[in-house]
Amino acid sequence: MNALLNVNDLHVCFDTPAGTVRANNGVSLEVRTGESLGIMGESGCGKTVLFLSLLHLQQPGRIVRGQVLLEGRDITSLGEPEMQRIRGRVIALVPQNQATALNPAYTVRRQLLEALAVRRGGGGLQPSGRRGDDSADSGEFARVFGSLGFEAGPVLDRLLRSYPHQLSGGMRQRVLIAMALVMQPRLLIADEPTTALDRAVKAQALEALQRLRGGLSMLVVSHDVDAIGAACDRVAVMYGGRIVESGPCADVLSRPHHPYSRLLLTAQRRTRGEPLSDVAAETLDLIHFPPGCPFHPACPEAMTVCSVQAPPECELRGGVTVACHLYRETSR
Ligand SMILES: Nc1ncnc2c1ncn2[C@@H]1O[C@H](COP(=O)(O)OP(=O)(O)OP(=O)(O)O)[C@@H](O)[C@H]1O
Ligand code: SF4
Ligand SMILES: [Mg+2]
């Protein structure tokens, strides 16, 4: 598979009165064409900063080092007009909060028409929402909702006529995914697609993501092991603004290697996917970054070397990569 997105050694900082916050500290990852990559980590580890930085939306944060390649093209320092052509059309974002992300005054159909108008090069609809060629649009909506498991017919017609407040959280989440798909992106980024959904509606949102898996490249940011397992081929575990372990979901989720991945997965299974901030994030100061391995103050397996030397990335069997001194000798 070819690489659709490459992030190489990305460092993103925020200047604050208390000092410089190092939110991303050398993130490197790859999303291959047609592949779905999950990003897991507790609150504050830098997940949102990462994908907002890819889209140049991370103001007042600044990229101080590193490179973002989209289909081999360096987009790290593209200007705003070029980034506007990439956002939505090439990389579409499904935002986190389905309760507020939709316009409460518009029907689902109108929201989708707005997205279509942007894709086709217009700035949006007339205030009346009127435009031509209705049957082509209906075909487009049927195609998009079909990929999410909805058949064309009375149920879909009713959904398109609904306002956001008439829908469940799971249905609103699927409408947000549909809006992103209408843009025909090459990469879909979903930020916490199941957070704040109860178990029944979470299953609907997961099913929608599962259906897309394999056909579309996705970056799924989530606290939820179930969501990552259902929607992703590979997973990257993030701590302190860096990827500490990555590999196929089947391996990393069932046999995590990095001590932090082990703590995180145990805690997440205990809390059934609720957002976490008490695994180890509180021991990490992103302004006064510790030397060596940033996880060493909280690591149950820390050795003397860990507080002095940053761990190298070790490639293990099966495509798993771990940044930890424990694996230096076993690295391929
Ligand atoms: N505007 C800002 N100014 C200063 N620091 C910021 C700003 N935005 C983010 N940060 C810092 O960057 C770190 C990473 O934030 P980010 O929003 O990426 O976390 P996250 O992993 O998405 O967390 P969550 O799971 O809670 O959404 C945070 O610890 C925060 O302190
Ligand atoms: S490098 Fe050391 S401190 Fe860091 S995770 Fe590995 S064992 Fe723990
Ligand atoms: Mg976030």
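^ adenosine-5'-triphosphate complex. The mean pLDDT is 87. The longest helix spans residues 134-147.
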